[in-house]
């Protein structure tokens, strides 16, 4: 990891910190607690993967960080989002807007629908420079070509005036990346950046993203449900379930020894060549509805290890240690039986 | 694109021939005889009447009459009025400016106020402003133009004296404002509703989320990203509606006493002046066709995904 610091770095203060965030949605069925006390941090040059099924609250957390959550129906009911120690939720909207795109940028899942269909990609890239840097149309266009070159779009100069539908899926996602990268932000949030792409293209886009992250020493929050994507690029993983973080660990630790039955289930459900011919493991049941989260541990109805205590008491996010009590690099797990899970 | 335009222009020919033919036949089918009308209450001189008819070609078979009319039209001859002996082309060009001004003003009101209120309602969907605007649009849609016209004439015109109840000088834009407002009301309501619904639909689009995530000011998010996408169907409607406004002008011109094409057609219909009616309607048809073509071409400018083939 790079030891180089940007000038605004304050020692001891994380670049971006989410602290005990709560977000609710008003729905016809009642209040849905989409995010229920989520905390995580990301530092410069670090990649945090946020893993979870759809509805686990991973995207809502990201949208809340960006300040692009639709409110209503969404409502932030508690917590802080600290960027370099300053709570963004308390900033006036105008100041917050200046941070968006400039200091913290976001990459979305489906580039075709996320890019404006009636504006040329050059215009959409150039907007970043024109709005945040006050550049002229011409300067902005030149910068856009540079950016497109940077994300290795062939014939960038000729294609700068083309429209999103004229590009292939992989090229479009490169344009999304270029747009997020335009002003060299400190943090990039990538919300399932490769889900809509072919497998071969997925790898290329992911490689490009982590290469650029290294070059610019950015913090990256990678939101995904794909364990395969995570292993190569992430430094640490936060696993989310029903609006909570259930396990948090350095990436290789987590793969080697999961400390939560849900994580274990996810890892077991990855197809493996040496299990060819055998039935693929799947976690039984469905993720809970957010308006009717089971009491106690939200995972208990699907958990093979569930006992009575799991149905009555919400497990706290406890520090995970070795058998002898020695620390395990700040790992945490929200399971009453994490010891049994990790140490067998 | 060039080939597309040529093809569309060629397509106009059969449309034009078909529509003029239908109007020509309808005029022929109407009871009443324009030549007989020259004598008014008096008994006509049969020989003289036959001579005039022969002179005007009105005793030819109807299809031959139509053919002669078309041949004249191609040479720029719109025919002559029977009673006044004036060239139809002169009658049209006298009446046209007033109608064009009225239509243009009504169109401007439709576009500006309609899109403006529709945008406001769409951005505040479900709130009081939205409900107020929807109510207004329902009111405008359900009350016919001739009722709205008389209401405008009676209240701001006669009772409150804010404005002259009839148009004395059709070159005075101020006097044309009320008639234009009456003429625009129906289209205005439709544009409002159409704009509102496309705004509501596009407001939650993924690219809108991207625009906000880029840290663009709200003004730019709405103006450059939301409106550009939402106005595509509205522009189509406005184009088609321009023709409707010209047709609607007939009623409005009657109420406000404007000397325009509407009145000309109305009077010509009463006097069974076939050449005038067909001439004016043909003109409106040409305007309609040209605007439809322009709208289709504008489509490609607004939406780059559309290609002409």
Observed structural traits:
A: 344 residues, alpha/beta, Rossmann fold, 2 domains, 8-stranded mixed sheet, 4-stranded antiparallel sheet, disordered N terminus, B: 309 residues, flat
CATH class call of the largest domain in chain A: Alpha Beta
> What summary fits the major beta sheet of chain A?
8 strands, mixed
Output the radius of gyration of chain B: 24 Å
Strand pairing plus helix content of chain A: what structural class?
alpha/beta
Quick one: overall form of chain A? globular
**Main structural class of chain B:** mainly alpha
CATH architecture of the largest domain in chain A: 3-Layer(aba) Sandwich
| CATH fold field value of the largest domain in chain A | Rossmann fold
Binned strand content of chain A: 15-25%
Report how far apart the termini of chain B are.
Answer: 7 Å
Specify the CATH architecture of the largest domain in chain B: Orthogonal Bundle
Helical amount of chain A: 25-40%
Structure description:
The complex is a heterodimer of chains A (344) and B (309). Chain A is built from 13 helices and 12 strands. In chain A, α4 crosses α5, α5 crosses α7 (169-181) and α7 (169-181) packs parallel to α8. In chain A, the strands form 2 sheets. In chain A, strands 6-7-8-3-9-10-12-11 form an 8-stranded mixed beta sheet, with helices on both faces. A 4-stranded antiparallel beta sheet of chain A has the order 2-1-4-5. Chain A folds into 2 domains: 16-234, P-loop containing nucleotide triphosphate hydrolases (Rossmann fold); 258-271 and 281-343, no CATH class. Residues 1-7 of chain A have low confidence and may be disordered. In chain A, 33% of the residues lie in helices and 24% in strands. By secondary structure, chain A is an alpha/beta fold. The longest helix of chain A is centred in the middle third of the chain and has 18 residues, at 199-216. Chain B has 309 residues and is mainly alpha-helical. Chain B has 2 domains: 2-88, no CATH class; 95-302, MetI-like (MetI-like fold). In chain B, 76% of the residues lie in helices and 0% in strands. In chain B, α4 (88-123) packs antiparallel against α5. The longest helix of chain B is centred in the last third of the chain and has 39 residues, at 218-256. Chain B is flat. The mean pLDDT of chain B is 86. Chain A binds chain B through residues 63, 66, 68, 70, 97-102, 105-106, 108, 110, 113-120, 127-128, 131-132, 163, 165, 176, 179, and chain B through 204-207, 209-217, 220, 224-225, 228-229, 232, 302-305.
């Amino acid at each position: 990891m790079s030891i180089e610091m940007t000038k605004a770095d304050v020692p001891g203060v994380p670049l971006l910190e989410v602290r005990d965030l709560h977000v609710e949605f008003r729905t016809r069925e009642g209040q849905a607690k989409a995010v229920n006390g989520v905390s995580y941090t990301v530092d410069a040059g670090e990649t945090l993967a946020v893993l979870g099924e759809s509805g686990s609250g991973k995207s809502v957390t990201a949208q809340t960080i960006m300040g692009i959550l639709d409110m209503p129906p969404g409502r932030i009911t508690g917590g802080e989002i600290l960027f370099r120690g300053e709570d963004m939720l308390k900033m006036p909207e105008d100041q917050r807007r200046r941070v968006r795109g400039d200091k913290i940028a976001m990459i979305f899942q489906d580039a075709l629908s996320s890019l404006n269909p009636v504006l040329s990609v050059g215009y959409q890239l150039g907007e970043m420079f024109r709005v945040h840097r006050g550049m002229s149309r011409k300067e902005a266009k030149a910068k856009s070509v540079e950016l497109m070159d940077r994300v290795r779009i062939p014939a960038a100069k000729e294609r700068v005036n083309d429209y999103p539908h004229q590009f292939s899926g992989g090229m479009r996602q490169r344009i999304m990346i270029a747009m997020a990268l335009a002003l060299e932000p400190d943090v990039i949030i990538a919300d399932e950046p490769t889900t809509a792409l072919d497998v071969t293209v997925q790898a290329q886009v992911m490689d490009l993203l982590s290469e650029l992250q290294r070059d610019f020493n950015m913090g990256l929050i990678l939101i995904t449900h794909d364990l395969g994507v995570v292993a190569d690029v992430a430094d640490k993983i936060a696993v989310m379930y029903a609006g909570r973080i259930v396990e948090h660990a350095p990436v290789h630790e987590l793969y080697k020894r999961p400390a939560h039955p849900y994580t274990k289930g996810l890892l077991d459900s990855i197809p493996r060549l040496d299990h060819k011919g055998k039935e693929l493991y799947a976690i039984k049941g469905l993720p809970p509805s957010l308006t009717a989260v089971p009491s106690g541990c939200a995972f208990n109805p699907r958990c093979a290890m569930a006992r009575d205590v799991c149905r009555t008491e919400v497990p706290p996010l406890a520090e995970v240690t070795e058998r002898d009590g020695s620390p395990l690099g700040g790992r945490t797990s929200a399971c009453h039986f994490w010891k049994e899970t990790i140490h067998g | 694109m060039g080939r597309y335009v040529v093809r569309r222009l060629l397509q106009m020919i059969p449309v034009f021939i078909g529509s003029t033919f239908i109007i020509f036949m309808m005029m022929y089918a109407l009871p009443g005889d324009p030549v007989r009308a020259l004598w008014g209450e008096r008994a006509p001189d049969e020989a003289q009447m036959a001579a005039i008819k022969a002179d005007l070609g009105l005793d030819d078979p109807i299809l031959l009459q139509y053919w002669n009319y078309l041949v004249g039209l191609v040479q720029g001859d719109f025919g002559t009025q029977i009673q006044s002996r004036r060239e139809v082309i002169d009658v049209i060009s006298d009446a046209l400016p007033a109608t064009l001004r009225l239509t243009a003003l009504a169109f401007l009101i439709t576009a500006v106020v309609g899109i403006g209120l529709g945008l406001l309602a769409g951005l505040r969907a479900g709130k009081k402003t939205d409900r107020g605007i929807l109510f207004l649009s329902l009111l405008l849609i359900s009350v016919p133009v001739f009722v709205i016209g008389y209401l405008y004439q009676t209240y701001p015109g006669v009772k409150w004296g804010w404005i002259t109840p009839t148009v004395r000088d059709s070159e005075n834009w101020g006097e044309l404002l009320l008639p234009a407002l009456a003429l625009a009301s129906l289209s205005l309501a439709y544009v409002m509703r159409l704009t509102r619904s496309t705004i509501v639909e596009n407001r939650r689009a993924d690219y809108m989320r991207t625009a906000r995530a880029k840290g663009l000011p709200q003004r730019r998010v709405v103006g450059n990203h939301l409106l550009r996408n939402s106005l595509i169907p509205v522009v189509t409607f406005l184009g088609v509606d321009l023709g409707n406004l010209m047709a609607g002008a007939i009623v409005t011109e009657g109420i406000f006493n404007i000397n325009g094409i509407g009145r000309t057609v109305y009077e010509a219909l009463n006097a069974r002046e076939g050449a005038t009616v067909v001439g004016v309607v043909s003109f409106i048809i040409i305007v309609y066709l040209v605007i439809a073509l322009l709208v289709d071409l504008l489509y490609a400018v607004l939406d780059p995904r559309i290609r002409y083939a």
